[in-house]
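Sequence, structure tokens passed on for absentees:
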Amino acid sequence: MSDTRATYENFRKSEPMSIKSDIKQTKPFRNDYHEATVNLIYTYNWVVDQIKQQLKPYGITMQQYNVLRILRGAKEPISTSLIRERMLDKMSDTSRMVDRLHLKGLVVRKTCPSDKRLVDVSLSQAGFDLLADLDQFDHHVDHILKNLNDNEVRLLSDLLDKIRG
């Protein structure tokens, strides 16, 4: 048995948590691919719940937080279509989300000078202030993966990239 496989087998034996116990699985998975897929979906939902709990006191959703961070990173006004391209959740209704953020005073909307059909969006001062408060949140996001060491975090990210091919 290779060193990598032996390390993995020891990890599996010593790890008290498992997807099978977390979801109260009573019969075996079809195969390892099935188990991994269910585990990925379950873990995704667990991570989302962790982030939602941190954002709840601020009155914004994960998607709204994503939009605010995109706008801060853009450093200049950008269109809703460009925001949509950069979103983590491609199914989000970006226009409606921008409208809600505008109603909260977190973004500014202006007609694009070069194309009157487009709306340029940028952060308001209140949006910048909220993100400054939420920067402390980065520690909580990093803490979600607290059970992994640096090499495992890098490996996880590489494997997730590989899944998407």
